[in-house]
Amino acid sequence: MIHRRNPISMRLATITARPVHRLTGLVRGHPVVTAAVLVVVLSLTALLTGGGSTQPRAANVSRNFRACLLVSPAGATDARLSQASWQGMQDAARSGRVNAQRFPAPTIDVKAALPYFNGAVQHHCELIVTVGTGMKPATEAAARANPHQEFVIIGATSARPRISAITAPDDPAKAQAGKKLADKVSAFIAARH
User: Fold this and answer.
1) What CA–CA distances, in Å, run from 52 to 39, 40, 41, 56, 58?
2) CA separation (Å) from 156 to 39, 139, 150, 160, 165?
3) Averaged in consecutive runs of 10 residues, what is the pLDDT profile of the chain (193 residues)?
4) Cα 68–Cα 64–Cα 166 angle in degrees, nearest 5
5) Angle at the Cα of 61 (from 166 to 54), degrees rounded to 5?
6) Could you give the maximum distance between any two Cα atoms of the chain, in Å?
7) 91 contact partners, CB below 8 Å, separation of at least 6
8) How many CB atoms lie within 10 A of CB 124?
9) Is residue 73 within 8 Å of residue 107, measured between CB atoms?
């Protein structure tokens, strides 16, 4: 039986062999060049193989409890409350079982804000957090439109079902008051999942 070589594989072997022969001819007899080539080869090998480091592990966060903060344009007081609330949500997320997300709601107008609430519902937010008395009417309208959704208002109260309230500190500008609010929000979320 006669074996014929594939002309393409022969050509490929010839093309790849030439640079290797040239490199070995250049390196032979030159210790500095040899050392430099060796360092480059080892560096590339370490880089391409990960250098022995462990590969990052992906966590499946899709099954985590999802809490979403709807941030509205507000005065300085509501901005401080939003900041402390967001910190509390991030603290709850550090447990690894909560996904905290933040969505803009560029208005507190009930009709105009409803699509933003609906967007949070469609993102499967199990708890929607709003801040301040200005967001109360929009939150109540969203609760009427989404009767199975849970809401919490920071710094306001509501008699509507499925809307909880977290009291705001008297002076949210104080660092300790902001920390207390963040702790309340974190504990509230932790109790929900």
Assistant:
1) 17, 17, 16, 12, 18
2) 65, 11, 15, 12, 6
3) 57 56 61 69 67 55 87 74 93 91 89 93 94 92 95 93 90 78 92 82
4) 40
5) 130
6) 95
7) 182, 183, 185, 186
8) 10
9) yes
**Secondary structure of 130-147 as H, E, C letters:** EECHHHHHHHHHHHHHCC
**What distance in Å separates the CA atoms of residue 63 and residue 113, rounded to the nearest whole number?**
27
Say which DSSP state 161 is in: T
Sheet strands (E) in 74-113: 98-104
Give the predicted TM-score (pTM) of the model: 0.67
What is the model's pLDDT at position 100? 94
Take residue 129 and report the two structure tokens written for it: 């957090």
Cα(178)–Cα(82) distance, integer angstroms: 10
- Go through 87-96 and write b for each residue having 16 or more CB atoms within 10 A of its CB, e for each that does not: bbbbbbbeee
Residue 110's Cβ-count burial label (10 Å; 0-12, 13-18, 19+) is: middle
